[in-house]
Amino acid sequence: MTALLIALVLAFVVQAAGWAWVSVGLNRVRDLGSPASPEASGVALSVVVAAHDEAANIGALLDALAAQTHRPFEVVLVDDRSTDATADLVRQRQAGFPVPLRLVHISSGDAPTSAPALPEPLAPEAAIPLPPKKNALTRGIQAASHDRLAFTDADCRPPPGWLAALARFAEAAPEAVLVGYGPLAGSGWLGRFVRYETALTAALSIGAIGHGKAWHAVGRNLSYPRGLWRELGGFAPHALSLGGDDDLFVQDAARAGAEVRYVTAPEAFVPSAAPATWPRFWRQRRRHAAAGAHYPSRLLAALGAMQISGLILWIGAPLLHVAFGVPWGWGLLAARTVLQRGVLSTAWDLLGAEADVRLWHPVLDAMLAGYHAVAAVLGVLPTPKRW
């Protein structure tokens, strides 16, 4: 029993310290706010989208981009080895599109179809082929006309004010990396859980950015200067990771001293559909783990400490009560949950979290602890190698 008591106390201390640190960073970003809205920002942007067999989604994406209120901008759409009508649908829209719409085509013989195997130990980074999505994004970045780049995914629907908000932030901080929020839309308990987990991850991301320790971003809502991308070697430093064109790049930028700002303007949030089934959810998370495996050891240790300490509290409190008749573990869990909710409330207000996520917070957090336990077991499985 003594060991369990010590573990619970230590877990609470880790959680309290971690959430206090996040709270300080969150408040810094919140207080910084959004740049003042000028009549019109003249920042020119190139929107880069990599698409692979997205015929079902590309029309709606182009509609959303055509409805953007900001000018000037262009769209660079990279058709990456599609076997459906993606390229044809883009060509049909080019003539009447309200801004330049450029199509970059990658044939099946021009790009890898999976993440590369481990190279020779002394192979230079430039000699390692990029995995499919990084290769497609690289081609799009190279074809772009403007230095300020904006990224989204082919299955997303950016709201009309997305680019206008990015332009305001870019005008205020021309060399900054702009990290945006990508809320997920879903119903039922899976949808509710995914929305909670997405908002919690964003809270941790915002808190870290407030401390100058950016570690996370989503590729469906990201912007940075092409000059910075070139200075950092593009995506070559992480060629062995299938993913990471977003978070690994942002980590590199932060370590290089680049300013990283979180775009808190609600009109810049880019929603996407949550996985419809649990198997799809797990496949998506295993794909994300491909990039997580390349995180720096100190970052992995910090994230692991938060996850493990939360799991210890959720398992240890009922175990201490049932096995030893000692109920005060529930007090530690309750105190931690109240502290966490106070911090998350700040993030929820910034991110416009739905009422059901707020209502079911304790249940969803218990589910998150269970998810972390299962993810630790599944972590021994190989991550996906294809986009």
UniProtKB/TrEMBL annotation:
Q: Which residues cross the membrane?
A: 359-381
Q: Which UniProt keywords are given for this protein, alphabetically ordered?
A: Membrane, Transmembrane, Transmembrane helix
- UniProt KW Transmembrane helix keyword: yes
Q: SUPFAM superfamilies in the record, alphabetically?
A: Nucleotide-diphospho-sugar transferases
Q: Which residues form the Glycosyltransferase 2-like domain?
A: 46-106, 153-351
A Pfam family that this protein carries is Glyco_trans_2_3
InterPro entries per UniProt: Glyco_trans_2-like, Glycosyltransf_2, Nucleotide-diphossugar_trans
User: Under what name is this protein listed?
Assistant: Glycosyltransferase 2-like domain-containing protein
